Structures are given as structure tokens and as C-alpha cells.
Amino acid sequence: PTAVVIDRIDRVLSGLELLESVTGVPGLVGRCVVPDEVSDGITDKPEVWRSAAVPGYHYRFDVSKDQYSGLVFGLVAGAVLLDGSDTIALRQRCREFLVRCARHLDAGDLRIRQRDGRVVRFGDLRGRILGVPIGVHAAIALPMFRAWARFSESRTDRRRAAIRTEELIGDLEPLHVELFGIRKYSNALMGAAGMASLSIVETDPAWRRVYRRAFVEFIRDFAGEGNAFFHSIARNLDLGDGEEEERCMRNLWHARLGFEFIEVSEDRFDGVPRRWIPGRRWQRRSAEALPLAVRPQSTFCWRTDPYDLRRDDGAAGELIASGADLFCAYWFGRYTGWIPGPSESQ
After folding, report:
1. Structural contact between residues 263 and 295, judged by C-beta atoms closer than 8 angstroms
2. Where are the domains of the chain?
3. CA 91 to CA 93: how far, in whole Å?
4. Rounded to an integer, what distance in angstroms lies between the CA atom of residue 209 and that of residue 121?
């Protein structure tokens, strides 16, 4: 990477490290952080805000497993893919951050805990709850322990990581649960992000076979949706489908046309074939996945239901395309080889 790119990575990583520093607990991050000089009216709810361990800041402490799934994906990418001689320090910082996260989760018995020891509201990452396997929890937690095993120099750490891996690996399936064709895409994305991290950090062929088997079942349920992020994970686990790859390429290509607000008319989906069974919260759903360019969305596109025909009230009648999720899908696709570089595509 160029000096400019290295500087940007350093700034992003420094921000993530600040989110950890403000909590005063290694491996625990805050949901967000605000400097004291601009905190008036923002941090006046003690049930979610606290004074930071770093002077001059307040932080919101109700972090969730959703954030850890994304945090770990970014750290794993940095820990493995920043392999140049000019990124040694950045790579090491990512690795040490992952080790701290794993230690925190291990010490908390697979629960993300506040500095007073209480479990955060959405911080339970046990692979089984009341005897029921929760695949998405295992998918979020496992990359931390596989990174711990790979990057820690402590034999004790590696033994603990191996114990946690054995404990969680049997709970990886099913990665998501649906009923009557209704699924929660936010959970699916968290599970997929965990599998993406595993596909990057894992070097043991036996464990990679386990991940591949779990992801075969997962990706089959999302066939036809053109999810470029999910497809990149499949490719990194030596899976993939040519027809689905074409859908993913078309979706990303149209999404690159711009991240502008697009007016949504009331009759926009007239004539689109509908499903008989409604989705979550009784929303109208199409019979086939909508192209990414026309989906109602006001959040990350990979966690938006591609069959949803509702006008997005949260977006005030407009579509909002987030650049971050498209960026991840594009560069992960470049890394796994199914998206060609500029010179290759000419």
C-alpha cells in the first residue's frame, strides 16, 4: 500500500484502539466515543454513557455482538493481509488487538462484559443456550479464538484457544435459522462476517473443511440474491457458483453508479410478482430477489432483505446506499479473485 493508504489504515486502527482504551478493559470496546467538549446534550443518559478511562472523553458502553462481528473482520484482515515490510507495525497492532478481544471473551465465559462485570445486553456469544446451538454466536466468537491460537506467543493462550475452539466448533451449524422462508438478515450478515474472518485467519486444513461444510448449507439458502459479500466468502472457502457470480457482478456494477439519494415513488413496485407468505412484520415481499440498485434500504445492503417491497419509511422516501459494505464486498472479491482488477478487466 502507498503511504497515504498506510496513514488511513493507521488512523482507522487508532480510532478502534481509542474505543477500547476508553473502557479501561483490554479487549472491550465502547459503542462510540465523544470528546467532552462536544458532549453536551449527547451524554446525559447515565444508563448508556459513562466517563471514559481516557481523560477528555465519554463513551457509550452498550456495545453488542453485531459490532464485534464487524470489528473482528477488520482486525483479521489487517492481521493477515497487511503482509508488507512497511506494514509490520500495523499488522502487529491488529494481532494484539485480536488477542485482547479473545482473552476478554474467554475470561467472561463467552460473554462480552462491562468493566463492572455485567454482561452487555446483546453480548452473549455462547454457542449453545438452553441446549440449542446458536450458529451465529459460534461464527462471531470462533475467529477471535483462532486468531488467539495463531498470533499469541503464549502456550497457555494457545491451549485456552484450542479448548474454546473445540467447545464452539460443533455449534457452528446452523449458521442461520428461518421459518416459512422468513429470515433475519442482520443475523445472517453477522454469521457471514464471522465466516469471512475464519476463511482469512484459518491455516489448518481440517478446520477449513469444517467451515466449508457449514457454509455450503448457508450459501445455498441465499442463492439467487446476488450477495457479493457472501459469494466472496464462498470463493475463499473454495466454493462458489458461476451463475450466482454473474448476479453478484451485476449488482456491484450497478451499485457503483453512485451513492446518491434516489426518489422512491409509491407505484415503484407495481407489477412485481409477490410471495404469498409475508415477511417479518408482515412486509410485502417479491417472488425473486430485487437487483441491488432498486432495493429499498437505509442500512448496510447485505443485511437488507432483498425481497422486501416496502417503501422505506426510515429513509424519508429515499434510498440510501452505504459505501462501506460495497467496499468490503468489492475488495474481498478482488482478494479472492472473482472480481478482476482494472488492468485485467480491460
Report:
1. no
2. 242-346
3. 5
4. 33
